[in-house]
Prior knowledge:
Blueprint lengths: L2 E3 L8 E3 H11 L1 H22 L4 E13 L4 E13 L5 H68 L5 H36 L24 H11 L1 H21 L5 E9 L7 H6 L2 E13 L3 H67 L5 H36 L3 H12 L2
Antiparallel strand pairs: 1-2, 3-4, 3-6, 5-6
Helix pairs in contact: 1-3, 2-3, 2-8, 3-4, 4-8, 5-8, 6-8, 8-9
Amino acid sequence: MFFLFLSSGLYASELSFSQTIQEVSQNNKEVQIAYFKMQQAKEKVNSAWSAVLPSLSFQGNYSKLHSYVYQRTYDIYTTGISLSQIVFSQEVFAALKAADLAYKMVYQEYVAVKQAQIYKTIKAFYGVLKAEKLQALAYQSVDVLAGHKRQIDEMYKVGLVTRLDKLNAEVSLRAMKTNLLNAQKYYKMAVLQFNYLLGKEKQNDGVFLLDDYKKDNAVFYDTNYALETALKTRADLQILNILEALADINLEVANNARWPSLYFSGSYGYMDNQSFKFLADANKDWSMALTMTLPIYQGGSLDSKKVDAGLNKKQIEVQIASLKEGIKVQIAEALLSIDIAQQGIKDAQIGVRLAQQSLSETEEKFKLGAVTSQEVLNAELALRQAETNFINAQFDDILANFKLKQAMGLDDFEFETQKNKYAKK
C-alpha cells in the first residue's frame, strides 16, 4: 500500500491509493461533466415517455364580436379542459427507443471517461512519488558534490590537486545543481497535475515558483496578472461564458413553463362589391379576443425540461471551473518553466566559461606533456556539452514564453504589447 504525503500541494495528511481513486470519482471535473451528460440523457428518456402519457390543459377565451348589420356587440366566453392521449404513433415509439439507446451510449461514455481519468490520476500518483524520490536524490547528490568541492578547494590551497581538478569539481557541482532545479520543476509540475486531476480547486501558491525566483528578471511573469489576462482573453473560456448565459435563459424558460399563456387576436372584415351594394355594408364587422392557456399536466415533459435545463447549466459551470483550473495549471507550468529556463541560461553560461577555462588549461598542460590527448579530448567534449546545454536552455526559454502566450490567450503582438505595458507599471 502506497501513501502520498504532500504538505504544501495536496493535503496535510496521508492520501492512500484507494482514497485517490475515490477523490477522482467524486471531484474530477471531466468525470463530473460526463455524469451530467448522462443525467441529461436520462431526462431525455423521461421527456420521450411524456409524449406517450396523457396531456391535460385548461383553456379560457373571451371574445368581443361586433356586427355592423345588427349594430350590436356580443361578449363571448368559452372555457374548457382539454385532454389528449396518443393511441399509436410509430414516430413517438421510435423516438422513445432512440432516447433509451442514446442514454445507454452516454452511460458507457461516462464509464469510459471515469476509467480514463482514474488511469491518468493513478499515473500522476506514481509520477509524484517518482518525482519526489528523484528530487530527494538530487538534493543528496548536490550535498555530496558540494562536500567534494570543499575538499578539493582545501587540497588545492595546499597544492595537492591542480586547478583543473578544482574546475572539474565546480563544473560537476554546477551541473548537479541544474539537475536539482529540473527535479524541483518536475516535482512541482507533477503535484500541479495531480491536484488538477483530483479536482482540487485550491492550489498552493508556493508550488508555482521556485524559492530563488527573481522578479526583476521576469517583471511580466506574475501569476495573478497572467491569470487575470487569460480569463479576459481566452476564446474557449468566452465561448463557455456565452453558453452559460444561454443556459440561464433556457433554465428561466423551463422554470416558467407552468405560467399561463395569454394571446390577443383581432379581425376586421370589409367587402366592396359594386354589383351588390348592400353586401359592402354587411361586411363591416370586427372582432377581438383574449385567450389564456394554462398547462396542468403534460405527461411530465415540463419537469423533464426543467431538470434537463438545470443539468445543462451545472455541466457548463463544471466545464468553466475545469477550464479555469486548467488555465491556472498551464500558467503555473509556463511560469515555472520560464524561471527554470532563465536560471538554466545563467548556469549554462557559467558552465561554458568554466569549460573554456578547463580546456585552455588542459591544452597548456598537454603542450608541457603533463596530460594525455585523451584528457584534451574530454575537455573539448565537456565544452561542447556545455555549449549544447546553453543552446537547450535558450530554446527552453523561448518555448516556455510561447506556452505562456498560449495559456494567456495572446498572439505574439498582443503578448509583447501586454508585456511592455506591464513592465512600465
